[in-house]
Amino acid sequence: MSIEALVFDVDGTLADTEEVHRRAFNLAFEELGMGWRWERAEYRALLAVTGGKERLKAYIAGLPLGGSEKKRLQERVPELHAAKTRHYTEIARQGGLALRPGVARLLDEAIGAGLRLGIASTTTAVNIDALLLATLGPAGLSMFDVIACGDQVRAKKPAPDIYRLAIDTMGVPPERAIAVEDSANGLRSALGAGLWTLVTPTYWSEGGDFSGAGLVLPSLGDRDQPLAGEPGERLQSQAWLSVDELTRRATAVAPLNAVQALYREP
């Protein structure tokens, strides 16, 4: 068996975008006169809910308000999310986003090795386009064979729908694909679809339950940003994760586990 594809999450995985998302939400709240402000600790807790519109709905549901007022606010979620997306794309356009260490290198190595690339994300196509354009330039979108977004599936992460959509569109069986994630919800989604999964947490997702992951690293690492203790602690070849070591690890162990079984269709 050989690996044919790498499928990446976006927010937190390709780039540590959550602070920019938080800033964009707060700018939208200010613009629309909501009187809300999400601090870092609060937003980190809200990230347990995947999807920006879903996060807004969950926040409103927890406010100490009457039913009619909550209903009125829930009806404003599309307006709020649209304003937030506009602010996010503007921040990205102005250079406010950067790829995490090693991401650009790993993408180049994967393409050089003949692997196909895909995206499986709960964020919107507009946000993905903004990130790829800001960090990889005009060629960013064409690097990926498929860009699967949250609004294209019935259930968002941790359900496996988005990964199934990505690999089905690519025509790649799950045992020949690797997922790259940063969160517990993303890991469960990828495992549920049958993919061996690498997890690189950030401040926003560290401390999650990453049991079932094939490998957990603080980042991919790079030649000028080597991982502490490597090689030797978790990596075998050098102080950054190469495509060669990644694919060797993924082909050594089948990804079947309890989380995958939980989502397997009867």
TrEMBL record:
<dbReference type="GO" id="GO:0016787">
    <property type="term" value="F:hydrolase activity"/>
</dbReference>
<dbReference type="InterPro" id="IPR023214">
    <property type="entry name" value="HAD_sf"/>
</dbReference>
<dbReference type="InterPro" id="IPR036412">
    <property type="entry name" value="HAD-like_sf"/>
</dbReference>
<keyword id="KW-0378">Hydrolase</keyword>
<protein>
    <submittedName>
        <fullName>HAD superfamily hydrolase (TIGR01509 family)</fullName>
    </submittedName>
</protein>
<dbReference type="InterPro" id="IPR023198">
    <property type="entry name" value="PGP-like_dom2"/>
</dbReference>
<dbReference type="InterPro" id="IPR044999">
    <property type="entry name" value="CbbY-like"/>
</dbReference>
<dbReference type="InterPro" id="IPR006439">
    <property type="entry name" value="HAD-SF_hydro_IA"/>
</dbReference>
<dbReference type="Pfam" id="PF00702">
    <property type="entry name" value="Hydrolase"/>
</dbReference>
